[in-house]
Structures are given as C-alpha cells and as structure tokens.
Amino acid sequence: MTVGLNADELLASATADTGLTDYADPTLPERFAVAVDHLNSLGMDAAGIAAAAQVCRWLLTSRLEFIEDRDRYPIADEVIDAPMFVTGEPRSGTTLMHAMMSVDPEARALRFWEVMYPSPPPGLRIGRRAARTGRRRLARDQRQDAQVAAQPPLQRHARRRPT
Fold first, then answer.
1. What is the domain range of residue 68?
2. Of the candidates 84, 66, 86, 83, which has an alpha carbon nearest to the alpha carbon of residue 75?
3. Of the residues 76, 110, 128, which one is the last residue of a structural domain?
4. For position 121, what pLDDT does the model report?
5. How many domains is the chain partitioned into structurally?
6. Cα dihedral sign, 59-63-65-69
7. In angstroms, rounded to a whole number, what is the distance separating the alpha carbons of residues 56 and 35?
8. Handedness of CA 148, 149, 151, 156 (dihedral sign)
9. What is the pLDDT of residue 128?
10. 62 and 116 share a domain?
11. 92 close to 45: Cβ distance less than 8 angstroms
12. pLDDT of residue 61
C-alpha cells in the first residue's frame, strides 16, 4: 500500500526549507489539510504522490517567501496606474490579446517567471534564491524581447497549426 501525503509534514518541510513560518493566514494549515485529504482520496500511485508532494512544497515555499518579501520590501507601496486584465473563455483570443499587449512599448505584461516565482522582487539577490533573480533574468527577458521585436508583426502571433 502506498503512503499518502501528510499535510503537517509538507508544512514542516516548507518551513525547514525557507526558515520562515508566516503564511499570513492562520487558517492556511487547516485549509491545506483539506486539500491534501482530497489529493489522498484520488488514489494516486507512488509517482503521483511524489509529484503532488513536490508541487505542494513549491507552492508552500513560494508563499512563505512572497509573504516575507512583502514584509521586507515596499512591494505594496508600488503604484500601478490603469491596470488592464485579460480574461475570457478558452479559445476566445485572450492569449492573442496578452501577446499583443506584451509587445506594446507603452505597456508592460507579466512575464511567466513573475507569475510562477514572485519572490524575491526583480533585481534583488538574496542568498540561495539568487539564481532566479538579477542580471541573468533581465538579460534573458531582453533577449526574448529583441527576438519578438525582430519578427514581422504577423509572425509574432501566428498560431502553428498541425499539418
């Protein structure tokens, strides 16, 4: 029989990995335990359980780091004038709209890493998280922007269709 996920162990592991304890929500451990119980009810095999544990640890450590960075740096003080949000049903053009907004020199779209790895804030190099930040990430983004700008406008957003 395969042993399932343990919410308390996953929370303890995230705390040990980061050295942080503040999830900014005292109800999170209880709600996380409900989610883990649901995952355990799915009947996953050992590989599924290992993958689920990895994702849970990533989400928990990311949250701990984000809350710590929000307390440490004035992230909340940043002003975003006139934000735009793209939402819609699948296949309704939201990805195309996001792509078009991302190449507008007067606008700025979120990059994948900003959504998936919000901490630390861009440009800050802190301990073991330094590999995800700083000049390497900025240089990669500038290369990608240059590649997109070099493409003819219609090719930038063309969908590749199976042949």
1. 7-76
2. 66
3. 76
4. 73
5. 2
6. positive
7. 10
8. positive
9. 43
10. no
11. no
12. 93
In the numeric block, the tokens 């990895």 are attached to 54
Burial class (CB in 10 A: 0-12, 13-18, 19+), 67: middle
CB atoms < 10 A from the CB of 133, how many? 19
Joined tokens for residue 146: 């240059």
One digit per residue, the tens of pLDDT, for the chain of length 163 reads 568 999 999 999 999 999 999 999 999 999 999 999 999 999 999 999 999 999 999 999 999 998 998 888 877 788 888 888 889 999 999 989 888 888 888 888 877 877 888 887 766 655 544 544 445 555 666 666 666 666 665 544 444 444 4
70 and 26 share one domain: yes
Residue 151's CB is within 10 A of a number of other CB atoms, namely 12
What does the pLDDT read at residue 137?
A: 56
- What pLDDT is recorded for position 25? 95
Burial 1-32 (b: 16+ CB within 10 A, else e): eeebbebeebbebbbeebebeebeeeeeeeeb
Domain membership of residue 56 (yes or no) is: yes
Q: Where are the alpha helices (DSSP H) in 19-134?
A: 28-40, 46-72, 94-102, 112-116
CB 66, CB 119: distance < 8 Å: yes
**Verdict on whether the full-model pTM lies above 0.85:** no
